[in-house]
Amino acid sequence: MERLAVFPGTFDPMTLGHLDIVKRASRIFDRVIVAVANSPSKKTLISLEDRVLMAIDACAGLRNVSVEGFSGLLIDFLKAQKADFLVRGVRTVADYDYEIQLTGMYRAMMPELEIVMLPTSGHVSYISSTLVREVLVHKGDIAHFVPEPVALHISRKYK
């Protein structure tokens, strides 16, 4: 039986921390879907289309990883994909506290779903999309914080 995991996020933009989680999840599960959320409440800087394209490029070398954009509730996406596992990355205690709250909601809505929290590796644990966007808005160099395809895409389109 195939173990399908979904790693969701807005990925605005995808960071080296996100890619760390994707790579590690790809070694655990048979198939991983990176689910790029269209989340109007988050007021993303980068369009959904570009975030999906950048994630596809960043994950290109991972044979069992695919990327899909989605709108609406994550639970609906998980059910449509027939996902067995939800992968969440955690960097800090605050992330963990928030994820524990979400876990209760996910389990109430989809009891058969298993939630797997992976701590980000130490060498990239300080990176967040929020901080990367701040550097980007001030026209700083983000190359040390994002996968190379993401940096190239952003330098061509958003600088």
UniProtKB/TrEMBL annotation:
Positions bound to substrate: T10, K42, L74, R88
One GO molecular-function entry: ATP binding
Cofactor(s) essential for the protein: Mg(2+)
Pfam families per the UniProt record, alphabetical: CTP_transf_like (PF01467)
Keywords on record: ATP-binding, Coenzyme A biosynthesis, Cytoplasm, Magnesium, Nucleotide-binding, Nucleotidyltransferase, Transferase
Entry superkingdom: Bacteria
Domain Cytidyltransferase-like intervals: 6-134
Gene3D superfamilies: HUPs (3.40.50.620)
Gene Ontology biological process terms, A to Z: coenzyme A biosynthetic process
Residues binding ATP, per UniProt: T10, F11, H18, G89, V90, R91, E99, V124, S125, Y126, I127, S128, S129, T130
Site (Transition state stabilizer): H18
Enzymatic reactions: (R)-4'-phosphopantetheine + ATP + H(+) = 3'-dephospho-CoA + diphosphate
E.C. designation(s): 2.7.7.3
Biological or metabolic pathway of the protein: Cofactor biosynthesis; coenzyme A biosynthesis; CoA from (R)-pantothenate: step 4/5
Quaternary structure and partners: Homohexamer.
Protein name: Phosphopantetheine adenylyltransferase
